[in-house]
Every structure is written in structure tokens, then in C-alpha cells.
Design a protein that fits this description.
With 381 residues, the protein is α/β, with parallel strands linked by helices. It contains eleven helices and 17 strands. Strand 13 and strand 14 form a beta hairpin. The structure holds uridine-5'-diphosphate.
């Protein structure tokens, strides 16, 4: 079959690879001048530092087949994400752990004592948190919420935490020991040479051709049997029913002749500091050594037409509009919508790869059974 995959990020590359290995001819197009989507990495010509061009990407998963998959295409180096936050004039360890709690409250509690103490802070009258704020108040209480989550979340999402789903906070652990690893996952690491060479290796198959600087136009479907669309779901329909909301990020790059902040990610919890975090990219490759340093101050704002869409907003309004786009997608033949943008969800890289592998398998099963492939293998709801 002749397959067109729109977008040369993780979804397009992984699906393309699976289908090419099954003998199909895959053409992957991308409007940008590079592969890798928002995982794209590039070496900074001035300092030699490996840059995470669209913001930090740290690979972490519990999905062993996915871990084996990425290791097939890149050498992974050990990496632990240890995030700090500057809030109310001090630096603290994240995610909230025993060090954070002891420092914040000026105490020397042991794990059980801290657990009991946080239970006195937490608002346990909230039985079923309906939003981010309630989830945070129930988990850690008002003082920690206001120092670490309230201002940051307002800056990141551009709305009150009372309007956001509780699920966003569930991404973060709360620990009553000194483990400051940001993620719970068993497998964590960073590709030694960056994500772009890893994705180039996934794409390196005789059944795959890649055309960069190539925008999709509807006439392209005439030459193919099926399309996998990893662009924005509403973008496929030219935003005809309205625009789904996204947050985009602005990066203010600056260089420093040494070690600027001593860690890869420094969050800023205070509302009156306009950026959400500063990332210092050489610390994402701790096995390299560089004299100079490149940092990004990261600012979040509502995406406008032409901006890079980063985080799907998914508030009440978007959810209603999303339903209409889901219906439109289901009524479209021979197109499958995939990935973070195509299914309008906040996906980590490992989930994106898992879903891409599953999507390719379902597609091949449908072909074998002579059934029409579905518009969505992973539900956007
Ligand atoms: N968050 C926060 N303070 C922090 C870090 C995170 O309030 O210092 C909240 C914020 O709403 C964010 C969410 O927790 O969107 C998830 O954080 P994560 O670090 O997973 O965000 P990402 O790295 O994906 O932007």
C-alpha cells in the first residue's frame, strides 16, 4: 500500500517504520526543515551544547518493549531528572519530598512524622477533587500549594488552577523520603547524541522516504491509500469548526561562560516572575563537558495561528469543540489521527511510541481482515 504520514515526529516515524517493515511504501512529510517534531535536538554552533530546541525532553517509561524499542535506535545514557524550584526567595527540591517539606517548614521530621504533619496541612474535607487546586489542597495543603503550584500553574496554563483538571497534578509524585527523582519510572535515560539522530535511525529504512519543508495539501491523498495525520486535529479540517486551544512556549536564549544554575531545570514558583522555568541544556548531557552554557528562559502563552502548539488546553470549551472534530474525523475515510496533536492530548514520549506501535499493529490487522482502519486507535477523550 502507499501510505502518507503527515509529520516526521515520533508518531510518524514509529508508524512509518512498522509499516515499512511490513512491506508498505511510506512517504513522510513535514512542514518544518527538520525531523523529530518537538523532540528535535541540535548542537549549538557557538558552545557545542546539545540543545532541546523545543524545550526539555527526558525519556522515562515503565513500558519495557518501548524502552527496548528506543534502545534499538540510539545509545541511551543514564539520566535522572532532578528539578529545583525557586519560590518565595529560596531554592527547594522537587518533586515535593522530605527535604522540601523539612526546609519549607524549618523542621527535621522523619518520614512518618512528615506524613502525619502533611495530613494536618492537607484539606481532607475534599473527598473527590474536582480540579487542580482541590487536588493540591487535598494532597499538600495551602502553604505548599501556594509556594510551588499555584503561581507556576497560572503561568503555565494561563488560567486559574480551579479551571484545570486534577489529572495534571497527578503527574507529580509526593514523597516522604529524600528521593528527588522527578519520575517514578523504572527506565530513564537520554539518547547520547540527542533525539534527532534516534528518529533519523527509525526513519532509516528503504521503504520510507522523507520530504521536509513540505506542507500537506488535500490533493496529496489522491496518490495514496491511507493517511496518518499527526498534525493538529483541527488543522486537518482547516480549523473550519473553530480552533482548539493550545499553550505555546517562547524561549529566551542566553549564554553564560560557565555553569549558570548548577542543574538542568530550575522552576520558578512565584507568580510575579514571568517565566515558568530556566533550562540549562548542557546539564541534559552530563556525560559531555562544555565551557560555555546555553540557557532558555521559558514563557508560556496561548498559541496563536502560526505558533508551535505545545500543550493541549482541554478546558470545557475545548472539550465541546473536540467532540465535533472527533465526529468529523470519524466521518473521514482513510485517515487515522495520531499523536499528541492528532488526538489533542498531553502525551509523554513513551506513551506516544506505545500508541504509535499499537496504531501500526491495528492498521495491519485491519488490512489483513479487509476492514476499514479506524480514525482513532487511541481515543482523544
Ligand atoms: N507544576 C507546578 N509547579 C512546578 C512543576 C509543575 O505547579 O514546579 C504543575 C504545572 O501545572 C504543570 C504540571 O504540574 O503543568 C505538570 O508538571 P510537569 O513537570 O509534568 O510539566 P511538563 O514538564 O510536562 O511541562
Amino acid at each position: 500500500m502507499r501510505i502518507l504520514l503527515v509529520g516526521a515526529g515520533l508518531s510518524g516515524a514509529v508508524i512509518g517504520r512498522s509499516l515499512a517493515e511490513a512491506g508498505h511504501a511510506c512517504r513522510i512529510i513535514d512542514a518544518r526543515d527538520h525531523i523529530g517534531g518537538n523532540c528535535h535536538t541540535a548542537r549549538d554552533p557557538e558552545t557545542g551544547v546539545m540543545l532541546h530546541v523545543y524545550g526539555p525532553h527526558i525519556f522515562h517509561t515503565d513500558d519495557e518493549p518501548v524502552w527496548n524499542y528506543v534502545n534499538r535506535f540510539a545509545d541511551f545514557m543514564p539520566f535522572r531528572n532532578r528539578v529545583k524550584t525557586t519560590a518565595q526567595g529560596r531554592v527547594y527540591s522537587l518533586p515535593i519530598n522530605l527535604l522540601t517539606i523539612n526546609q519549607f517548614f524549618g523542621k527535621t521530621m522523619r518520614p512518618d512524622e512528615a506524613r502525619d504533619f502533611i495530613a494536618t496541612q492537607a484539606d481532607l474535607s475534599i473527598k473527590e477533587p474536582r480540579n487542580f487546586e482541590e487536588q493540591a489542597l487535598r494532597l499538600v495543603g495551602r502553604d505548599l500549594y501556594e509556594a510551588f503550584f499555584k503561581g507556576y500553574t497560572q503561568k503555565q496554563w494561563g488560567c486559574s488552577p480551579t479551571e484545570l483538571p486534577a489529572s495534571i497534578l497527578k503527574r507529580l509524585p509526593l514523597r516522604f523520603n529524600y528521593d528527588d527523582n522527578y519520575f517514578f519510572h523504572r527506565f530513564q535515560g537520554m539518547p547520547r547524541d540527542g533525539y534527532t539522530p534516534m528518529i533519523a535511525a527509525i526513519l532509516d529504512h528503504p521503504g520510507i522516504t522523507v520530504d521536509l519543508d513540505t506542507a500537506y495539501h488535500p490533493g496529496m491523498v489522491r496518490d495514496v491509500d491511507h493517511v496518518f495525520w499527526s498534525g493538529p486535529l483541527d488543522g486537518y479540517f482547516d480549523h473550519a469548526l473553530g480552533r482548539l486551544g493550545y499553550r505555546t512556549l517562547d524561549f529566551e536564549r542566553f549564554t553564560y561562560g560557565g555553569d549558570y544554575q548548577g542543574c538542568a531545570v530550575m522552576n520558578y514558583g512565584d507568580r510575579d516572575v514571568p517565566w515558568t522555568r530556566i533550562t540549562e541544556h548542557k546539564h541534559f548531557s552530563p556525560w559531555e563537558s562544555h565551557e560555555g552554557s546555553v540557557c532558555y528562559r521559558e514563557y508560556s502563552r496561548a498559541a496563536q495561528p502560526g505558533d508551535v502548539p505545545c500543550y493541549p488546553v482541554r478546558l470545557v470549551e475545548e472539550k465541546a469543540l473536540l467532540e465535533t472534530y472527533i465526529a468529523a474525523a470519524r466521518a473521514t475515510e482513510a485517515v487515522t489521527f495520531v499523536g499528541r496533536l492528532g488526538t489533542y492530548r498531553y502525551l509523554d514520549m513513551d506513551v506516544t511510541i506505545r500508541e504509535a506501535l499499537d496504531t501500526a499493529r491495528v492498521f495491519l490487522d485491519c488490512l489483513a481482515a479487509r476492514r476499514a482502519p479506524p480514525a482513532f486507535v487511541s481515543s482523544p477523550r
